[in-house]
Amino acid sequence: MASRPSIENVGVASGDQVRVLLIDDEADTLFPLLAQELESRGFEFHKESSPDRALDSVQSIKPDVILLDLHFPGDDRWGEKTTGGRLLTRIRRRFPSIAVVVFTTRLDDVDIPEEAFEAQPHFAFAKPKFGRDLEWVDPLAGTMRDAIDAAQYLCDPEALNLDFLVGQTPAMRHVAGMIRAAANNAMTVLIYGETGTGKQLAAEAIHKLSGRAGRFEHFNCSGVHEETLEATLFGYESGAFSGARKTGMPGLFELSNAGTLFLDEIQRMPVALQDKLILVIEHKRVRRMGATKDTLVDVRLIAATNHNLSDLVDEGAIREDLAQRLSRLPIVLPPLRERMEDLPEFFKIFVAKANATLGKHVLDTLRPEVFEKFAAYDWRGNIRELETTIERAVATTRSNVLLSADIKFSPIGRRVMEQMASGSPDAAPLESPIELKAVEPGGVDAEVVKTLTNQLESLSLDKRYAFLLGQGAHLQKQILVEFICRLRAKTHRKVGHKVLAAALDPLPRGDTDLARIRQFVCSHLKLTELDFNQ
Amino acid sequence: MRRILLINPVDYPLIELQQLLERTIAELGRPHGVVAISQSNEWSNEARSMGTWALDSVIQELIRRPESDRPGSPILVCGLLRSAYLDMRIREIGGRQLALWEWPGFAYLEFGFSEEQLIATTYQIIEGAKTSLPAGILPSVGDLLRMTSEIRHWLENRLRNAEGALDIYERAMRGEIVLHRSHLDPVAALTGEHRAMLDRLWVLEEVAVRFAPRTGGLGPLKSAVCDFESRWETLEIARAVLRAGAVDIKCEAISPVLAAIQQVRDMLLAAIVATRKLDNELTECEED
User: Fold this and answer.
1) Cβ-nearest to B196 among A32, A35, A73
2) The pTM of the whole model exceeds 0.80
3) Chain centroid, CA A270 distance in Å
4) Could you read off the pLDDT of A97-141 as tens digits, one per residue?
5) pLDDT per position as a tens digit, A241-299
6) Is there a contact between A73 and B197 if contact means CB atoms under 8 Å apart?
7) Which of helix, strand or coil describes residue A392?
8) Rounded Cα distance, A9 and A12, in Å
9) Interface contact A10-B168, CB threshold 8 A
């Protein structure tokens, strides 16, 4: 006998459930259909039908995943931009850690502005015909969970020890996207990056995200004798050379079978061994030293270098056919000096780590003079050097706030600073402060700005930051604002606005002049107050 | 004789305003008459509250007038809203409303204007009307097709969801599933955004009649949407009854809701068919 239907509480939300926000002009009629089938599968649904209220709803509900329609009333169906597309861009910008699944009628009709993704992974799902056929339920649930996993890995460095993925600069968002893309296939990856930029961490992240069952092994090819290198990587048979083990030994390729092998400083691999490396990449075969047969291996190879591959080929350090195979999926890790806007975030992370290690309680407040000192430094050792510098500072400081005097660079780094100060050919021409002319309130001295602009444009990128900071304390605020607004490259402007914030920070918040300048900067740089204060 | 279009969006004595304007024109020695247009009750509250309905009605009036008389008619709109506010709203909207707003033959006067202001403005729009109306002010067939496409997309979405709800209620009636509580929540037939979307099409009724006379312009579609709204009201009443029944729901209580959803579905299908018929004739017109 059929049971009597009732409206008891179906799928009451519990703490373990995934919170979903449905943003759709038909949210009121769509919501019950989704909730009916998916609440029992661990999803807690919320809805918003107005695109104008969507961001507020995201802010208040804090969903784990958003199901976002693209087309809303008022959209020109044949136009280029949709309300949903614009919303997606704004959601990505303000809430990068929240997963978004584009929930649209037809996947081939998806109009997603490229800037909304910037190499982040994206997910889309075609709205199903709701009905007796429930084939859409599990795939939609799976897609939402995949989207959440992807967002977590890319936006939560703690999830995979991805400190180097800190920051939301376009370059790092691209890196995060490339790591995800690399994890989804078994192609050979080549990671470019200076020492200390996190090449091994990136390789580990790719390995973990890929879900490969085998081990992650890593090896640095520099400073190793050729025979030792061959034996280590490819293994050897008994009697292959004097001193060889009687039982022979598998190499790293065999040990990382079904896993990943990371080879750093690949340019140091002798050309004679590069043949064997090509055999592994192309034919999945490895031959031990002294062996007569090949062994099949399934190894995902990730190589790293801090040299330009074309130059290495020209110099004969790397075979051209190997270079072609290695560079199928390149990932470039930017040096720290090109990511200075991420420095405050790194500072917080590394102070916290040092506190935990050393049992101290130093505050993670980044004082402007400390930032200035950091920004003026060369950071040849990149993030690794930054971490050790901060750790050293935390260890030696006697106060609970790091001051400029607490920051002591490594001997190598100090040499660079001394060069800069001494005016050697490599040094940055750190100009003395410009003598100010009287500037009328609201006016800008065009001559001063022109002089500053010419000086700045003659400097390399990393020198410009130091120059700006050096001027910041002395220039009239309006000149600094005008100057920053003229910085052409978007990256420069973003750094410029951080510099401005640092330069203006000591001023009292009640300063109306400051408020006016912030407004001026926001309108010129097309920022909102929220962007400015971040 | 050229005529000035006088638009009066509020309850002000239209005849007196018309006479005032005619006297002004006579004093200027210009051979112009005045066509006065009063507010229309067809505009939704939202459009009216935005204060910009007047421009839509100007456009409607321009559409209504014969081809030979259309170019160069000075237009004067009077209203209570501040010019600065209207200017801001129209610039946000953009499109043909902004084009009309910026045309030198068009002017807006806030009530409380002086006689001198009226004289100056009248002179200004008479001179300004010598400049041709900007292209694109009057809607094209392509505009209509885009809007009907947008509405059909919405109708199809609603239909998909209605059919989904129908299936769920049927299963609930057979005792196969327990209805989720959200199925009983009240839902408006049209949100504010949907209503504004429809209003934007209804404004072009005259255009639609001209381009699709066989179909009867927007009439069948308007009628179908009206029927849909009416059926939706019936559905909401049935849902309210079910809600009032709280936990213990009998199968027969679901039956009226089921019937109402079926009727809603039928009306949605009719509305979709109406958009397609209209599109077919509009497309033929575009190709000619």
Assistant:
1) A73
2) no
3) 33
4) 788 898 988 666 555 555 554 435 567 888 888 876 788 898 899
5) 777 777 888 899 999 999 999 999 998 888 888 988 998 988 888 988 888 888 899 99
6) yes
7) helix
8) 6
9) no
